[in-house]
Each structure stands twice: as structure tokens, then as C-alpha cells.
Design a protein that fits this description.
Keywords: Coiled coil, DNA recombination, DNA-binding. This protein has 17 helices and eleven strands. It is α+β, with helices and mostly antiparallel strands.
Length: 499
């Protein structure tokens, strides 16, 4: 028998006029509510105006909506998991299993807290011991109350009590697999990205004293992970925004999937599967307009050094093909002749799709490839993203373009920070891919056709590259109407010829 699980409110108010927050388990069309409670056992109640009945979650009007939504999601997941695994899906049986599982989770949290406390003691002990190097001991022993002998005796006691030990087995396994995972991409351009992700994850763990455990991948871990990378990073480290944090989360989920499917890791908290992967904010999408590309390639290119010419060629080539920078750098494509027409094709490094780029899309594709003997590995993506900004800055200044800063938004979780900067400072290789997608969308191409050309499978990713302002939407609609009218006129002409 099928069942559903969802956040809900009871119809009956409490004496304060608030509605108890519950998880609703519906089986055979009959709903049953389980109240959500605080750690000290009090039923959580909220104003019904702060609750969205459709999604079963709190609205953003509630100050602590994020905390409550995490609670709803976590308990819903626990209830759903035990119900799915149980042959007897009656409410009484499922509720008993749910409460038993909560007790298990609570016991695990207590165990984990003890582990963290022990590890913090280890860190303090090691720091204390490191103060007293042989060179410093003579100078400092008079100023400190404890002698080296006393400290050594204390450290030995820590060892005897089991305080100073290695990491627990689960974290050892996590870190071992974490270091192994990027090696799969060692010969691919994205290898550096995976190494950087590993470094960021370890940095987060060390700076926040958060253990890396498969069993602890809950919403609390997700929130701590995002809060650190976007708000609280150590000095000289760039604070991420939603879309860059989304990239980190995507790799984390990919890593855990690999651990489960390939390495057969058990005891994984499956809540990680529902972690949000943020995309690029729609209102900060920029790219080179056609007039800019023409001016950059046909005129400005003739006035610059060979190094800058290569960078311009890379930019125009990516604008014309829409390929990811990693696939361009790999240059592992082949040219096929299909029905007398040349096509650039190859496997994408990111999702193992196959891109198909007809040379007929733009004459500059073949022209640029022949200029470099079909090898476009001039510079890694990080160098390109760094150097394209000043080049475009000089280009815009030379032609008096975009000399006023433009508004853009940085998003971190639900926070939106409105900023201004010059267009060239906001530019990266992703902008070239956006140009390709938006250009062909304006020409009337369907999403699936664009996805097929790029070798992509995820239409949701495509939406992140599209510009959604009124002007662009209007152009797309106008193009569609023109095509419809042309087809209608052609049909009428054919009918008149038949008569």
C-alpha cells in the first residue's frame, strides 16, 4: 500500500492560538500526525500564516524558518525510510519504528559528541606539548607553572586513558577515500578542480572542528559547510557565493555516490542526496554581444600581441562552439564528415556525453582550429579567467564601451548582496558558453537541440545559462512567431500550387 510523508499543521490550535507542527503520515487515504518537539520535549507550534501547506515547509516570513525546515526534512526522511523498509506499513508499526530510529540517532549523536570532545582534548594536548620544544624549554620553564617532566607525565597519562589515539575508523576511511577520489581525473583538465574541492573540504573540517563522517551527512553538516565557505572562511581565502558553493556540493554528492556504489561504504546518512545544489543567479548572466565579438575578432585582434591574439581566439572559439573550457583545453575531438558536412565531435569530460558541433554554425570555428593545428590547449582555465578581464578592460576602453559599472547580485543562501562593477571584471569562460546558448535560443533552436550540440543531459543546467530579462524573452517569442508565420505561408503557397 502506498503512503506519503509531509510536514503539516494540526487543525486544532493550542491555548496561545498557534498550531502544533507535525509530520503527517498518510496511509490508505487516512492521515496520521506525529508532533515535532524541542530537545527538552516541548511541542513546537507556529502561526499558520508562516506555514506553506503545499510544500509542507515553513515560509521565509518565520525568522528561524531554515532551522524548522531542516527539522521537518530530517524527521520526514527518517519516517519515510522506516516506512519504506517495513513490510507492515500501518501507522502504529511505522510510528514505533520511527521512535526507535530516533533513539538510535540520539545515541549516535551522544557517541559522536564524546568523540569530538576527545579529539578536541587531543588537539589541546598536542598544542600544549608543541609549546615546549627543546630549544624553548630553557627560556620558558621558569615562567610556566608546569615543568617539561610534568607535562610529559601528563601526556603519558592521556595515552594510558586512551585520550590520545588515532581518528576513529569511520573518519580514517572517509579521508582515505577522499584523497583517492580525485585520482580518477588525474589525466583530465578537471583534475585541479577536484583537488581544490578536496582541499576546501579538509579546510572546512579543520577550521570548524567538524568530523568528516559518512553517518553525519545531515542538514546540520550542509548548513555548517555552506556557512563556513560563504561567510566564515579563514583570512586570504575567497568567500564563495551560492553557485560556487553549489559546485562544491555537487562534487561532494558525486564523491559519496562513488563511495557507496564503487567502494561499498555502509552507514551513510542518505540525507546528503537532498542537499541543494545552487545554480548561477539569473540576474547576473553576462556574455559578449555579437557586435562585441565582431569588433574584438575582426579589428581589435589585429592590434595586440600574439599572446592576446590566442586569448581572443579562445574566447571567440568558445562563443561559437559553446564547449566547456575543459573540453577545449583537452582538444581531444575528432572531425567527422557527415553527408558532406564537417562536424566537430568528442566526449565531454564532465558528464561523458558527446558534443556535436557542425562547422556550419560559424566559419570561425574551422578558421581558428586550423590556425592552431586543432590544438587549443594554450592556457589552463584559471589563467584564462584571470587574464581575460584586463584584456577586455583594455578593449572596452579602446572603443569606449561599458565605461559605467553595472549592477550585479551575490547570493549566499537566502542573502542577496547588491553590488556594482565593470563588465570585464565579471567575465569568465562561462560567459562564452552563455553566449552560445542564448544566441541559438534567439535563433529559435529548441532546448533539446542545444543540449544535443553541447553533449549535455541536464536541461536544468541549461536554464542557468539563459538570460531571462524582458528583452531577451521578447526576442525569443518574436522569432518563434516569425517561424510559425513563415511555415503557415509556405503551406498556403503549396496548397495554391496544388489547386
Amino acid at each position: 500500500m502506498s503512503f506519503t510523508v509531509k510536514g503539516s499543521l494540526t487543525a486544532k490550535k493550542n491555548k496561545n492560538g498557534l498550531h502544533p507542527l507535525t509530520i503527517r503520515y498518510t496511509i490508505g487515504g487516512v492521515p496520521h500526525n506525529i508532533s515535532l518537539k524541542t530537545p527538552d520535549g516541548k511541542v513546537i507550534s507556529v502561526d499558520k500564516n508562516d506555514f506553506d501547506t503545499e510544500s509542507g515547509l515553513m515560509k521565509k516570513t518565520k525568522s528561524n524558518y531554515n532551522v524548522l525546515n531542516n527539522l521537518i526534512r530530517t524527521h520526514s526522511q527518517v519516517l519515510e525510510d522506516v516506512a519504506a523498509a517495513s513490510p507492515d506499513k500501518s501507522f502504529k508499526r511505522v510510528k514505533d519504528l520511527y521512535l526507535h530510529r530516533l533513539e538510535e540517532i540520539k545515541a549516535e549523536e551522544v557517541r559522536q559528541a564524546a568523540i569530538e570532545q576527545r579529539e578536541n582534548t587531543i588537539v589541546k594536548a598536542k598544542k600544549l606539548h608543541s609549546i615546549f620544544s627543546a630549544e624553548e624549554a630553557v627560556e620558558k620553564k621558569k615562567a610556566l607553572s608546569k615543568t617539561l617532566t610534568e607535562l610529559d607525565r601528563e601526556l603519558e597519562q592521556y595515552k594510558a586513558e586512551g585520550v590520545i589515539t588515532e581518528l576513529n575508523e569511520e573518519e580514517v576511511e572517509f579521508k582515505k577515500l577522499l584523497l583517492e577520489f580525485p585520482k580518477m581525473y588525474e589525466k583530465q583538465p578537471c583534475y585541479g578542480q577536484y583537488k581544490s574541492w578536496v582541499s576546501n573540504l579538509i579546510e572546512f573540517s579543520q577550521q570548524t572542528n567538524t568530523p568528516l563522517l559518512f553517518s553525519q551527512l545531515d542538514y546540520d553538516f550542509y548548513n555548517k559547510y555552506g556557512t563556513y565557505l560563504m561567510f566564515n572562511r579563514m583570512p586570504k581565502k575567497v568567500k564563495m557565493v551560492n553557485n560556487t558553493f553549489g559546485g562544491q556540493v555537487k562534487k561532494l554528492k558525486q564523491f559519496i555516490d562513488w563511495c557507496i556504489e564503487i567502494k561499498k561504504v555502509k552507514n551513510v546518512n542518505l540525507i546528503y542526496k537532498s542537499y541543494d545544489v545552487y545554480r548561477k543567479s539569473k540576474d547576473t548572466i553576462i556574455y559578449l554581444e555579437d557586435s562585441e565579438i565582431e569588433l574584438l575578432y575582426n579589428e581589435y585582434r589585429q592590434q595586440v600581441s600574439d599572446a592576446k591574439k590566442r586569448m581572443i581566439d579562445l574566447t571567440v572559439f568558445q562563443c561559437c562552439t559553446g564547449l566547456r573550457y575543459g573540453d577545449i583545453y583537452a582538444s581531444s575531438w575528432v572531425v567527422k564528415n557527415i553527408n558532406g558536412r564537417k562536424v566537430l565531435t568528442g566526449e565531454t569530460e564532465k558528464n561523458e556525453g558527446n558534443y556535436v558541433i557542425p562547422f556550419e554554425l560559424d566559419s570561425r570555428i574551422e578558421e581558428i582550429l586550423e590556425r592552431y593545428d586543432y590544438k587549443m590547449n594554450h592556457m589552463v582555465e584559471g589563467v584564462y579567467n584571470r587574464d581575460i578581464k584586463p584584456l577586455l578592460g583594455e578593449f572596452y576602453k579602446h572603443y569606449d564601451l561599458y565605461q559605467e559599472p553595472m549592477a550585479y547580485v551575490k547570493e549566499r543562501f537566502e542573502e542577496r548582496e547588491k553590488l556594482v562593477d565593470f563588465k570585464h571584471n565579471l567575465f569568465s569562460s562561462h560567459c562564452n558558453r552563455r553566449r552560445f546558448i542564448n544566441y541559438w535560443k534567439l535563433q529559435g533552436f529548441e532546448d533539446q537541440t542545444i543540449l544535443d550540440m553541447l553533449g549535455s543531459k541536464d536541461s536544468e543546467v541549461l536554464q542557468g545559462y539563459k538570460k531571462k530579462d524582458v528583452s531577451t524573452t521578447s526576442k525569443v517569442i518574436t522569432t518563434k512567431l516569425y517561424q510559425i508565420r513563415m511555415l503557415s505561408a509556405m503551406k498556403e503557397e503549396q496548397l495554391s500550387l496544388q489547386d
